[in-house]
Design a protein that fits this description.
This protein is an alpha+beta fold and 321 residues long. Helix content is 51%, strand content 14%.
């Protein structure tokens, strides 16, 4: 399998946790520390992105002593620089292809961050910026780049497909992946309040499609696109107790007559078949296999695309001079 491009680290721009303070003096912030096809990478851009990468690393692997872990710090800084190189390439290639960032979506994302921070504490968003040495322009540019990253990937990989033969071969060669325990098939529609749950239950009793109503109303992103399917439920399933208890008590093939409340909201629950331990048939997992293989092929193709862009780019790292 090919070595992955540092573009994966780009996904770190979606991690909004508590980051470290920026450590460079103001008068050096606009100094150029690199170029990508003539586009400058400034010290300020580098410092802020490095702090973001460092924070992610510490959350994942533990605290970093920047004075004593100098080799690790050097590697993280090199990774940060490579991230910024990839970001510049994404901006340049997006412009070449006429791809524009969805600024409305970017602003919605930033507004959600502001609201979340301010909900945690008074003036929480401004404190978040001040404590981490960030400014709004930095966050906005990171989100713009991420938005373009997604659009560019879609554009580059739009012609990639997964054939039925590929999906079938994967299933035959990996059947142990699709083994399942004994349990009951359970479907649910999750909504925020009981009034909405009762309305949906009324529609179901009048002949409405459970899968269509799940897709339309459920706030559970993991199951709404699957007709409300949450998989098999048994005594060992790690679900919240009110939901699991109601699901286990429900007879196969029946709909619970009263919504169940949990910490997540109100559940409308339907039971499917009671199954013994076994292997899911191909027809049950075909869509999942095809979606998984498609994501893998798209990621492989786009990573190679970015590697090719880097190989052809004129990249200067003034940190080395």
């Amino acid at each position: 399998m090919r070595k992955k491009t540092n573009c994966q680290v780009l996904a770190l721009i979606l991690i909004l946790a508590v980051f470290m303070l920026s450590g460079c003096q103001e008068d050096t912030q606009e100094q150029a520390i690199g170029e990508v096809n003539g586009d400058i990478i400034t010290q300020k851009q580098f410092d802020q992105h490095y702090r973001m990468v460092l924070s992610w690393y510490q959350q994942t692997y533990g605290e970093v002593d920047e004075k004593n872990d100098q080799e690790l710090v050097a590697n993280l800084k090199d990774s940060s620089f490579q991230d910024l190189v990839v970001q510049k390439l994404i901006l340049q290639e997006s412009e070449r292809r006429g791809i524009e960032a969805d600024l409305e979506q970017v602003e919605q994302d930033l507004e959600a961050i502001r609201a979340q921070r301010d909900q945690l504490e008074e003036n929480g968003y401004q404190k978040f910026l001040d404590e981490n040495g960030f400014d709004e322009e930095f966050l906005k540019q990171e989100w713009i780049t991420q938005n373009l990253f997604v659009q560019l990937q879609d554009d580059v990989t739009s012609d990639i497909v997964v054939t039925e033969e590929e999906a079938q071969n994967y299933y035959e060669e990996n059947k142990t992946v699709f083994e399942h325990p004994a349990g009951k098939e359970i479907y649910h529609i999750l909504v925020e309040d009981q009034e909405k749950a009762n309305e949906i239950l009324k529609q179901l009793n009048e002949g409405g499609s459970f899968g269509e109503l799940a897709a339309q109303y459920s706030i559970d992103p993991g199951s709404k696109s699957r007709g409300g399917d949450v998989g098999l439920v048994n005594e060992d399933t790690n679900f919240v107790e009110p939901f699991k208890k109601a699901a286990l008590e429900l007879s196969p093939g029946t709909l619970l007559t009263t919504p169940v409340e949990s910490e997540f909201g109100f559940h409308i629950i339907k039971a499917g078949q009671q199954l013994d331990e076994g292997v899911w048939p191909y027809s049950k997992v075909q869509d999942d296999i095809e979606a998984s293989l498609l994501r893998y092929k798209q990621e492989e193709s786009f990573n190679q695309f970015l590697e090719d862009l880097q190989a052809k780019a004129e990249i200067k790292d003034f940190r080395k001079s």
